[in-house]
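[09:14] KT: can someone run the structure on this one? pasting the chain below
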Amino acid sequence: MPQSPTKPFIDVLSGQRQAIPPVWMMRQAGRYLPEYREVRAKAGGFLDLCFNPELAAEVTLQPIRRFGFDAAIIFSDILVLPCALGRSVRFEVGEGPRLEPLDDPGKVATLAPRADFTKLEPVLEALRIVRKALDPRVALIGFCGAPWTVATYMIAGQGTPDQAPARMMAYRHPEAFAKIIDVLVDNSIEYLLAQLAAGANALQIFDTWAGVLPAAEFARWSVEPTRRIVAGVRAKVPEAKIIGFPRGASAQLPGYVEATGVNAVSIDWTAEPAFIRERVQSKVAVQGNLDPLVLISGGAALDRAVDDVLADFGQGRLIFNLGHGIQPETPIAHVEQMLKRVRG
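[09:31] RB: done, structure tokens below
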């Protein structure tokens, strides 16, 4: 039997350091690309694009064609799961998501226990289309939002500066809050398994708002739900490769890694390199952590920042990425400069 080509991205998640680290960017299918803006205009609303398999597949593939990244991430959003749970979700231009708030225990009682997964079939179909189109060496990433982060939007009905509505609800009504988390854990497991079955090679769990939680709440509402998701996925797919991104967790990353069992963690640009090398990268792969603003800046500052990431983490298992998503105003030439610098 001929051997399948290896995927450098998956090799790192499997424990094999690469001399040239694999590269991709969070939000790499996005508004900084003129070809994305063209498709986005054709699609109508943002969710219309997420739920159109052909167009979602097309924008997923655009940055792969242009830059030759080592991984594609399916174009979707963490709030498609609340959609499938019957919650009203819409995206207002310039304002972000708007949801029907679950801001008291009485409203939480109306939350459906199980998602209507037929609503998520377009995402799965987009995964199938992309997997067929990708070079075998390029990995395909599926994802979901971590229960804590998704819950913050569901409770407030929108993003807030410090997600105070969800934090207050977790303090005042922990049983009702735990019900939201439990529903999101169970349905995230099913959703991620469906993404693997549709062709995803790896999964990422985005906990964008993990960093606003005190230590005890971080353990309860970020770490433990993520641990349950990882265990639930691996109960059916033991070899599943999973990346966690508890943004802003910093000093709490070693405990997160140990408790959740993820194969890698994504780190933001504020992470202290020596700490990450000694306490985190010694156990799992790390992904990150270029500041998206230095990618906008370009020039010598970008070269230095790329060199710093490689110097800090390149001797261990590294997936080169940004510390968060690429910004819409990022020049394409700066992405090309970054890739040239990483790949030598």
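[09:33] KT: thanks! The two ends are 34 Å apart (CA to CA).
[09:34] RB: yep, looked fine to me
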